What does this fold into?
Amino acid sequence: MKKWTRRAFIGAGVLAGGTLVLGIAIRPGNRASKVAGYMANEGEAMMNIWLKIAPDDTVTAIIPHAEMGQGVHTALAMMLAEEMDADWSKVKFEEAPAVKEYANYAVAKGFIAGNAEFPKFLDQTIDGVFLTAVKSMNFQITGGSASVRFTGQQAMRVAGAAAKAMLVQATAEKWGVPTGELSVKNSLITHSASKKSITFGEIAPEAAKFKVPSKPKLKSAEEFTLIGTSKPRFDIPAKVTGAAIFGIDVDIPGMKYATVAASPVFGSKVLSVDTSIESKEGVIKIVNLGNAVAVIADGYWQAKTALNSLEVSFEINEKNGSSQADIVAGYKAEMDQALKEDNLETHLKSGDVHPVFGKASQVVEAEYQVPFLAHATMEPMNCTVWVKGGEAEVWCGSQNPLGVAAAVAEELQIDQEKVIVHNQLLGGGFGRRSETDVILQATRIAKEVDFPVKLIWSREEDIQHDVYRELGISRMKAVLDDSGYPLAYQSQFIFRHHPPEAADIPYEVPNQLIRYSSPSSLVPWGNWRSVDHSTHGFYSESFIDELAHTAKMDPLAYRKKLTASNPRFQRVLDAVAEKSNWTSPLPPNWGRGVAIHHSFGSIVAEVAEVEVDQSGKLKVHRVVCVADPGIVVNPDGFIAQMESGIIYGLSAAMSGEITIENGAVVQGNFHDYPVTRMADAPKIETHILASDNPPGGAGEPSTPVIAPAVTNAIFAATGIRIRALPISKTDLNISIQPST
Amino acid sequence: MTRLTINGKEFEVNAPAGMPLLWVIREQCKLTGTKFGCGISQCGACTVHLDGQPIRSCITPALSTEGKNITTIEGIAPNPDTLHVVQQAWIAEQTPQCGYCQSGQIMSAVALLDANPNPSDEEIDLAMSGNICRCGMYGRIKSAIKRASEALQSSTPNPIIP
It folds into this structure.
């Protein structure tokens, strides 16, 4: 494992006390008691911090990631069980508690550094830097499609291999035979010469006495027997019976309910609130939070009804009161200004575009725009907090439970050790549940009373007080050579968040200049599924399509030619051409569009087939998706993630748009922030091109590709080029609109 | 006090005029499988059956359901050891992702198959388009409905039991 070090793994707190005794000390003196709580069952020996082996052979993987439907618990447990050669039917999982021992060092390293591969000599330094960064930031984040890529590769597999090595060592010593004579299969260690065998559970207490090997040997991809097979997900049965408990479902004795209305205008304050309804039936307390008003009541409905009738006046702030057209005009003016003053940050400069632009005959220019987007997770925002004296307990579904603990501790001015976070299932994350704004609000409400309070946001609050995918603009310019291929490629875009490589193009263009600026914005920004890839996928895959059409070449063949030296791209493009029957004829008014993008370690190409009827009505009939994600742990789970990312991206592309009027979000619920429903969902066919490259992400990489695949298909069908999303803003009736 | 019949059991609840059935089911009866999603009958997460018909409990006053049979996701399995054929199909197709909308999806699907055991694709689209799934599992939901439909026709229930 090239990125794995002793500090990352053993330093995270390993080592059983060496016997089968309960309450085994883990890094004695360092919060051992909290971890010991997870060792409460008689007879369990903790091999290391990531797994337990019970006398009945049950292997429990302790997994430091939240389950939001991406199947992470199952996939990570599979990676551990693979290296252990454990009997899969006896493998279980527990989500790691939100204590620092589980701080997700591996994720932070991967997430912050993007997909960068570090030179070997830098390993120690980088590990040191990131370990420090993670400790200070209290990362335990599920995001960046990182669970399998980093925790799985760097922790779960290593832990499994280390555990197996210790079990084999202990068996060898017990029987007085060399370790090389022992074989392991299905949680059973066998010495074939003497026909002896012993189970994991039997030898586990003795194995705990051995030192954890610092660099256990991992399997090669050909040796996998579990990874690469589809296994039913652990979390599914409870989700079909109603038994699954999400954050909104927790029930704490004595709990009351709260709901909230924040100032509609971002950044403005509550001026006054009439608290006279406190005495009304069911209403317990009105809380003025400064920028929001909360009602605590016996139930959500009572709280919401009281809130609706509450007389509140909010500050009218001229500065914050801009509207959509002003915002877009302001961004564009700042882009012009930045260009005029040459005040742009450079993302990438290779060769020199300027002399080429100066002499060029065939210049193509286009400006693309994408809108603000809300997350609209199915489960509205919620959080239950109980503040009792100098301690607090929190129940929520979070992508970042350690961040929750830190935020609550800071708000209450108490030690983080005094905050217990009970992470629950997430009814959708998509980046929204990596934030702590709702948790802080719930804490501020709960500290006004001495009982637990469950804060539930209405859907309107969720849509109007989200942290939004930005309204982005990219101005693209290219020069084509005599054969029609780009000699120079330039883009100027707003804004850059992360990961930085989102703005890269995979195409071989000798002269490139990619620059960006960051105009001032009053609309709060947040991570939205695939983050900057969600904007750049649309910009660059639309523009390359325009270049292909300008050159009068097949858009798929054009992409192939421009990625000729990248065998992974070649393979994906060939496969998507074949699986979509790219060159086969389509009915009249139909079109096919292709797009490809590399994000979070996975290359995904999609071909969309659309129909635009005479009245301009658009139907996306079929999407063929081909992914090269390297090693695939649970193929059916991966396919489900591709399907999910496509529908999520399609919802946004078709109709997703948040607009601002007088400083406030206009939309409020699914009637005016519509999302894709079953009747509009295309048939999706996903094909995996697995390889033994390190596993790529699953949760995000199909999202950036769908918008350009569909808009490119619309162009093929109608000649109408959509340069501003959502598609619903463009009238596709070709009889009234000339092609662009 | 109001008496409601949910999953064959009697509940005494405190339901002031106008209080939607959803909040009574969740907060007073502690049946949290039925979900809050939008509050305005747009997403289907709160779907339950009222005398066998699918309704949106977020806009249905609890008082109006007195004397009727309410069925929630917790009440559709034929007995504690066997899942409903639709639930079995949902597991077989590995349908849920985050899972939050799935109680509502399953309740809509059960109502559809009760009324029409062999629905066409278009009939499935029509019956299910009031239920939003932000994880986008529409293809799997449709496959699961077809699997359940086949199981109902063959009258040998799919044997998958978690």
User: Anything to note?
Assistant: The first strand of chain A starts at residue 45 and ends at 48. Chain A touches chain B through 64 residues (CB under 8 Å). Chain A has three domains: 6-240, 247-317+381-456, 523-729.
